[in-house]
Design a protein that fits this description.
about 325 residues, alpha/beta, TIM Barrel, six-stranded parallel β-sheet, globular, binds zinc ion
């Protein structure tokens, strides 16, 4: 009896250790606003941002998907060099999708104009993709604004389908654009210590967002599914991406492609959110199913970052 009890205890001790060890978390990385921000960044700055981010992804063996604003290629005398930035992403195995030509806002631009901007924004990207045998056709809405009313949202989604697009959702973002504006302000002030502090707070805030979204995923879908992170090409990410990817990996994440992420059944849920914000798809699925909104519970970036950015405006 003792032996049986002991064996049972051994099974209890060993069994759960193997069967309950958590499955690795998965995350796809999506990168918006290629070839980079701010819009007036010199091409040399865009080149160094691109090279740094591509290298960080390569070192972390992290696939990614890029979303292009082709309007940023149209700078006199620089189009060739700017287009070469897109080729650098593609050569590194990062496929590219459409993020419109000029980054209009579906909340304010008439649908017909917005759709023209989508068509205008696909020419170079799809030529480069096709030349590499890549057939993915993903679209990401600027500001992730998907339509302020049901008729606009529905009509635009129909337009995207007829042009062969799949909408690229995201589940986690980190307001990197705010922290990036803050680093630009600190750079203008020539304050290297401040830049360092902003970068560390940016990493910490990204971890806070994961602290928020991981349990929200469990509450909403009953499990953690493959998260899709949304960041941008900017100096901040060029400087911090190695550390950011390391910290994410330390939470148990393995990086996967966007296409692989979207094989997760959660992404077959309908996005029932109608409104002027651009929330995470987790919030959208909650809206679809009538679950209480958690949008206001999201961690805010530190107040001092907001003050620094607004003082420069
Ligand atoms: Zn964007």
């Amino acid at each position: 009896m003792r032996a049986v009890a002991l064996a049972f205890a051994v099974v209890l001790a060993l069994g759960p250790a193997t069967t309950q060890s958590p499955a690795p978390r998965r995350m796809a990385i999506t990168i918006d606003d290629l070839p980079g921000v701010p819009a007036d960044a010199p091409v040399a700055a865009l080149r160094s941002m691109t090279d740094a981010m591509v290298e960080a992804l390569r070192a972390a063996q992290a696939p990614a998907f890029g979303f292009v604003n082709e309007g940023k290629l149209a700078v006199r005398g620089e189009t060739h060099e700017r287009t070469a930035l897109l080729e650098t992403w593609l050569d590194a195995g990062v496929p590219l999708g459409n993020h419109t030509y000029s980054h209009p806002d579906l909340n304010t631009v008439p649908l017909a104009d917005y759709q023209r901007d989508v068509i205008r924004g696909e020419a170079v990207t799809f030529r480069l993709m096709t030349a590499r045998g890549r057939t993915e056709r993903f679209f990401r809405h600027p500001f992730t604004h998907t339509g302020p009313s049901a008729p606009i949202k529905t009509a635009f989604e129909r337009f995207l389908r007829t042009r062969g697009y799949t909408i690229a959702p995201f589940t986690v973002e980190n307001t990197d654009y705010l922290f990036s504006s803050a680093t630009r302000a600190a750079r203008r002030q020539g304050d290297a210590d401040l830049i360092e502090k902003i970068e560390q707070d940016y990493i910490a805030h990204t971890m806070s967002m994961l602290d928020f979204y991981e349990p929200l995923a469990r509450q909403t879908a009953g499990r953690e599914f493959t998260q899709i992170l949304l960041i941008h090409v900017n100096e901040l990410n060029a400087a911090t991406l190695p550390q950011l990817l390391t910290r994410v990996a330390q939470r148990g994440y393995r990086f996967v492609t966007l296409a692989s992420a979207m094989e997760d059944s959660v992404y077959r849920q309908r996005d029932g959110y109608i409104g002027r914000s651009g929330p995470s798809w987790i919030h959208r699925w909650r809206a679809t199913r009538g679950l209480p909104s958690m949008m206001r519970e999201e961690p805010e970036p530190p107040a001092w970052i907001l003050r620094l950015v607004s003082s420069e405006r």
